[in-house]
Amino acid sequence: MKNLSTILSAIALAAIIVLYILFFANKNNTASTDKSDEEKIALPTINGGIVYLNIDSVLSNYDMYSDLQKDLQGKVKTSEAQLATKEKALRKDMEDFQYKIDRQLVTRAEAEQIQQQLMQKEQALYQLQNNLQLQLAEEEQVAHRKVLNSIMEYLKGLEAASEYQFILGTTFGGNILYANDELNITKAVVQGINENYRNEMEDED
């Protein structure tokens, strides 16, 4: 029978990986936007048609991003609790089996049967851990796409109103090392996408 530490190590590693990749892996954001501003933030009018926004700041201040992140974190905790419960039960069964073996309380045939059952439970636990990891990874990817799609759809709508030709995305350590603050539309975009998101939530209610 395989050692119990193998499955426990696999579960622990999976939990660490999921928490690390969980919803964009929480970066250290270098910019912030005041969500309490009630006045409409005007978009700059640029003759060249090129503006930019700070992606880190947009994500950290986007209500949709925050809501989806909290939802996914809740699912991670639920999955971890489910795995922990089953792992605890398996550990107890294995300890009970070892107790009986040490005191010769079971026949060889009974021992082989119990051993097979424990191996099946161990394999089932490993399969559950793998399935939960794949499910969480898929949900994280879908949430990622939802956030990016909503931002891109909003930016497309700015073309007609502001005649922007290019909207660049900056991030700490990215390819754009300097940009004029007058070209920064981050705050206006954050306000706009949050208004759209709140309106969508109200419509669903």
Main beta sheet: 2 strands, parallel
**Spans where pLDDT lies below 50 across 5 or more residues:** 2-37
Number of helices: 5
Give the topology string: H per helix, E per strand.
HEHHHEH
Radius of gyration: 26 Å
Number of strands: 2
Structure class: mainly alpha
Strand content: under 5%
Number of domains: 1
Strand order in space, largest sheet: 1-2
Indicate the mean pLDDT: 84
Annotation keywords:
205 residues; mainly alpha; two-stranded parallel ribbon; 5 helices; 67% helix; rod-shaped; disordered N terminus
Set out the fold topology:
Layout: H1 4-21, E1 50-54, H2 55-60, H3 63-102, H4 108-162, E2 166-170, H5 186-204
Parallel strand pairs: 1-2
Short summary:
The chain has five helices and two strands, in the order αβαααβα.
Please provide a written account of the structure.
This protein is mostly helical and 205 residues long. It has one domain (4-204). Helices cover 67% and strands 5% of the residues. The protein has 5 helices and 2 strands; from the N terminus they run H-E-H-H-H-E-H. It has helices at 4-21, 55-60, 63-102, 108-162, 186-204, and strands at residues 50-54, 166-170. A two-stranded parallel ribbon has the order 1-2. The protein is rod-shaped and about 85 Å long. Residues 2-37 have low confidence and may be disordered.
